[in-house]
Design goal:
seven-stranded parallel β-sheet, 15 strands, 2 domains, three-stranded antiparallel β-sheet, single chain
Length: about 260
Amino acid sequence: MIPSERRDFIYRYVYEHQTVSIGDLVELMNVSHMTVRRDIRMLEEEGKVIGISGGVKLNDALRQELPWSEKARLHHRTKREIGQFSSSLVEDGQVVYLDAGTTTFEIAKVLGERFNLTIVTNDFSIMQYLMNKSQLNLYHTGGQVDKRNHSCVGNTAASMLRTLNVDIAFISTSSWDLLHGVSTPHEEKVQIKQTLLDVARRCVLVSDSSKFGKYGMFRVCPLDQLHDIICDNQLPADVVQQIIEKNIKLHLINT
């Protein structure tokens, strides 16, 4: 691998495993310790990872998300289970918003077999999947195209959402915690997610636990502005208790 490919591999691997030893990276890439340390140092300078004794961990201050195709391969079983449960909250005849993301894509796969639903999304992959489901009413937000995440973002997309009354919105995120709430490293995503808080009767955060404890530069909302959070059962017990104390419906999925 050339240096840029090595650094991409390291970041993806750390993104998935949170903490990785230098020895593991040496073995996986078949390169020297010195090469791995040099690559880690460059990733540190970009703010993506933090070097620790004998290894490297993901920076809690998230600077960049993985592209859609990379995220789709991570924690797929957990996302599928979250998708199955999330779909059970949807009632016939409702207007459902599916935020851009690989977890919401799993919700789309289940709702695609339902009838009498209107699906609104800013995600091109979700829309493409549902296009041949003739029994569903479909709306895409349009707007500025985020090629990396297969979606539309920005004011144009948010303006379209302001014309709607949404029954239930499933909101995705790359980072959330108790202190910063829902956040993102990308400013152009904020407006869409904040608009949903105004136009949706029920706002549901869908996220696997690997994204908890991370925060991006741009705040979306505190957790208590959400009605529900759907996550797997790997959240720390004290975090579960604090979320419940905020009067948020917390649904933990066994995985």
